[in-house]
Amino acid sequence: MVLEGIYTPLITPFRADGSFDLDGLSDLIERLIEAGVHGLISGGSTGENYAETVEERLELARFITERTNGRLPVIVGTGAMRTPDSIALAEGAREMGADAILLGTPPYSVPTEQENALNALAIDRAAGLPIILYNYPGRMGVEMGRTFLDRVGRSRNVIGIKESSGDINRVHLLARDYPHIQMSCGMDDQALEFFAWGAHSWICAGSNFLPEEHIALYEACVVRGDFTKGRRIMSAMLPLMRVLEQGGKFIQCVKHGVEVSGLRAGPMRPPLKGLNKDEKRALGQVIDTLKTTVKAITEGN
Fold this sequence. Notes:
Belongs to the DapA family. By secondary structure, this protein is of the alpha/beta class.
């Protein structure tokens, strides 16, 4: 499996009573396919997986896989605190015909690299699918370091890694020492740097509501190698990236962005709460400015 392009970790639209709004999710899937994203991810943290049961996550993954119907690759997130839960998600992904799984470190337990590797390999055996590792020490508590990568990277199923540490030295490490593991940008405000170091894909929550603008940066840098234009697009996107990566309300902003785009996202599941009026207004202004500026750049103005 070759990781090329923009992969959207889907939000989960909810109704006021906390149930799934599957019609809203269907509309979002169709919007993203029409916009030209290159793959969809079910069951990531952007989809509020921490507030869903394993059964609910499998229900959503099946719906997304069936609705997509082979038009795009579907990647199923298997991150969970309990290894049996991750294995159940991995087995479900295989049975429903998903294209790959996203495999993170179990949060809170703080495993050693050896323990983390054994956990990942157990999930690998259960799935038998291409694997995209997910390094996010800010949420998981530990890093997928050299010991982990040396052990897990020997599996033929491990084809990529979503790097979300925010440490640019990790980008250098992966590009230089682990070229057989495809590097995917998982830290939105470093997308330009990832592309400069050879990444060909970007797993970006903001593409839920700004798919064309994210695709524009990918096409400028990766498809055409035009980093002059890429820097201009990235500069226009940085105010949004600061809101998402440094504002402390990442998922809330993404879901409100979907609402601004004219689709339904619904409320957050507890413990999170939505944006207040001032935050919504500020985000709306950032989105409007970004769209106008990127359109001018891509149209050659």
